[in-house]
Design a protein that fits this description.
The chain is of the alpha+beta class and 713 residues long. It has 16 helices and 34 strands. Helix 14 packs antiparallel against helix 16.
Length: 713
């Protein structure tokens, strides 16, 4: 092995090289000024790959030929990768990909034959003699994703949070402060405890807040001693040190349910909480009429632990202030997204998660200011922290990586919004479960209790959103490969929320022509008239998926999807249709927002309806109507009816009852907490589990599900 001391650069020698005062002018003139060893997606090479890279800078006053110079990550092989004949002008910065691809054509991007080690290593630039060291990073520290390393304006090694390849380096940081650690984890507690917060970074200080705001090195309480936690508390903490990048903000929610069941029981806003939510109806309280009811007073604390809990923690002004999302529920888009922390807390102590995210209000009609309980949408983006949530939110059989998902509430036939005794909180979930039971992908969902800055906010439903990232998770490929068609609330016209509408328009044009002939029918299936595949024809229709989707719609008597009774049956609403532009998959249709279901056992949504005769309103039901002109398609409808409405199919009375009762049992006790929180939203005497909810559940079971399958056959 070569003698390391022969080449080792001391701190003084490194500085002298920077100043050009030692070892000749060449070493001071040519430098490795910046490099990246963990390129996530900050830059891509000509192959579209996020390769490592190295920047070489000629800081001198004359041009230098780099021919014969070499880069190496192995001290025993200083000639590991040799530069071709290329000249670096005065002040010029050269970009070399450290990709392992070994490309040395000077007219094309250069690539080394090695990659950089993100876990730590060395990087050397040698003169053409293979003996003279020109620039070096010896034993560099572990690198971070999309963070570069190099020399700042004074010649000191620094990390750069914003890489600047091809440009002068800005000021950087010495390193990164380690995350805060909490001696006791988030969860449910009944007794006070002492909480210790620490960081493994020597010399780091810690600040924390308990009002939802983000602590910084300048804002928040300075942590000096253990904190006594004796009531429901949302605690956010940051560790920091001069010259270092501070830790991210960690959040811990500690829930004392004896506090929660008494929150705002006098009807007034709690201390520190606003008395107005813009023009919205304000309601914080847990109703003593439910909490102290002999039917619930001994069970309500246990009832609040029958489901997992989500804790949203954020600046209250971002929620309720003049530009807050809850104060302006009608607003949408990125301008109305606010940062927050999201925690999943399991009552049994199983490991949940905490992630920083963006949050918006979601929905259409439910955005009304007379609705005190809005649905919410979560977004996981790099700007907040992790770009994805990696956790089995919907169980082991579902995807475990998410760009976001929804926290739905129950608007139509609800206690909180419309004061409707028919609120059962599972109409939409049931329809989506049926689509899953048929063997299709669907919007998976589950039930949770929700807290906002420690304030109980009621029963919610976590729901997947079938957009491009969802499609890539379940069908494969990249999210950029997918078209996602949905209805735009307000005008109730179709729109591509991902990709484009070109294939949807092609399908619309085919529907206008008609499908009576086998040629026209097979063509939208991507086939020749004899049913053999034709690679020149895009696959636009999956007839099995379309028929099964429509059977769910018809079984539930869905009044608001995919054609809306409330819009005179002239416009569409509440559907998602998804297709990959690359594969053999026709559009996949998803049951969405199926709240107007399970009402009238004799409801007939067969149509035919005119909504869809123009492209603006084209929807799956209109397509289904047009396809019935084809004999093969109508025979397939009969096959699917036989499959699902007979022999233990998903729409038989027995199977539908099983699916319904599974969800009913899941929320059976949690409904007590919803009753205490929102049962009195629209009337003085609260809706309750035992009185209204059980009665409405039995009505659906006995008057709808027990009879519906026979009516449809």
């Amino acid at each position: 092995m070569q003698d390391l001391q022969r080449y080792r650069l001391s701190g003084l020698t490194t500085l002298l090289l920077w100043l050009g005062l030692s070892m000749g002018s060449l070493q001071g003139q040519i430098l490795i000024s910046e490099w990246m060893a963990s390129n996530g997606d900050s830059s891509v090479d000509e192959d579209g790959e996020s390769s490592d890279w190295v920047e070489i800078w000629n800081r001198g006053n004359q041009s230098i030929s780099l021919e014969g110079f070499s880069l190496s990550v192995n001290l025993e092989d200083p000639r590991q990768w040799v530069f071709p004949a290329i000249t670096l002008s005065s002040g010029q910065r050269m970009f070399v990909w450290a990709s392992g691809k070994d490309r040395v054509d000077p007219t094309l991007p250069l690539h080394t034959n090695f990659r950089l080690d993100a876990d730590g290593g060395s990087l050397w630039l040698w003169y053409s003699d293979g003996q003279t060291l020109v620039s070096a990073y010896e034993d560099y520290p572990k690198q971070r994703r999309d963070v570069s390393y190099g020399l700042d304006e004074s010649g000191q090694n620094r990390f750069f949070l914003q890489a600047t390849p091809g440009q002068a380096n800005a000021s950087g940081v010495l390193g990164f402060v380690a995350d805060t650690q909490f001696s006791i984890d988030r969860g449910f507690y009944t007794e006070p405890f002492s909480l210790i917060i620490s960081s493994q970074t020597e010399g780091a200080s810690i600040r924390y807040t308990t009002d939802g705001t983000m602590p910084t090195s300048q804002r928040g309480n300075v942590y000096t001693r253990p904190i006594i936690i004796d009531q429901t508390t949302t605690l956010r903490a940051i560790a920091y040190r001069d010259g270092f990048e501070p830790s991210n903000v960690d959040t811990q929610t500690y829930l004392f349910l004896q506090d929660v069941i008494r929150q705002a029981s006098d009807g007034r806003a709690p201390t520190g909480w606003p008395t107005r939510w813009g023009s919205n109806t304000v309601d914080y309280g847990m109703d003593p009429a439910v909490v102290d009811d002999p039917a619930y007073r001994d069970t309500i604390i246990d009832d609040m632990q029958t489901l997992p809990s989500y804790s949203i923690v954020m600046n209250l002004d971002d929620f309720f202030g003049s530009s807050g999302i809850y104060s302006n529920p009608g607003q949408d888009g990125r301008n109305w997204e606010r940062p927050c922390s999201v925690e999943l807390i399991h009552p049994g102590g199983e490991k949940g998660f905490q992630i920083n995210a963006g949050i918006r209000v979601r929905g259409g009609f439910s955005r009304s200011t007379s609705n005190p309980k809005h649905a919410l949408r979560l977004f996981f983006r790099n700007e907040y922290g992790a770009g994805k949530l990696n956790y089995p939110v919907f169980g082991p059989d579902a995807t475990q990586s998410f760009d976001g998902f929804d926290l739905r509430t129950f608007q139509n036939y609800s206690w909180s919004f419309q004061g409707d005794s028919r609120g059962i909180f599972l109409r939409d979930v049931f329809s989506r479960d049926v689509q899953l039971a048929m063997g299709h992908h669907a919007e998976r969902g589950d039930y949770v209790h929700l807290y906002i800055n420690g304030m109980y906010w009621g029963l919610y439903n976590t729901v997947e959103r079938p957009e491009a990232s969802y499609a890539a998770s379940y069908y494969g490929g990249q999210k950029e490969d997918y078209d996602v068609i949905k209805v735009e609330a307000g005008p109730y016209t179709i729109n591509a929320t991902d990709g484009n509408t070109r294939a949807w328009r092609e399908l619309f044009n085919a529907s206008r022509t008609g499908f009576e002939s086998m040629e026209s029918y097979q063509k939208v299936l991507g086939n020749n008239p004899d049913g053999t595949p034709n690679p020149d024809y895009p696959v636009l229709v999956d007839p099995v998926n379309l028929i099964d989707y429509m059977l769910v719609i018809l079984y539930g008597g869905n009044l608001d999807a995919p054609i809306s009774n409330f819009l005179g049956n002239n416009r569409p609403n509440n559907f998602y249709s998804v297709r990959s532009r690359l594969g053999e998959m026709g559009f996949q249709h998803f049951v969405h927002d199926a709240e107007h279901t399970l009402l009238n056992v004799n409801e007939n949504r067969l149509g035919p309806y005119n909504a869809g005769r123009s492209f603006t309103y084209f929807n799956p039901q209109y397509l289904w109507q047009r396809l019935q002109a084809n004999e093969e398609f109508t025979l397939l409808i009969g096959d699917r009816i036989h499959r699902h409405l007979f022999n233990d199919g998903a729409l038989t009375t027995e199977k539908a009852t099983e699916l319904f009762l599974r969800r009913k049992d899941q929320i059976d006790r949690a409904v007590v907490a919803e009753s205490a929180r929102w049962g009195d939203s629209k009337r003085a005497r609260p809706f309750t589990r035992d009185r209204e909810w059980v009665s409405s559940i039995n009505t659906v079971l006995n008057s709808f599900i027990a009879r519906r399958s026979r009516i449809l056959r």
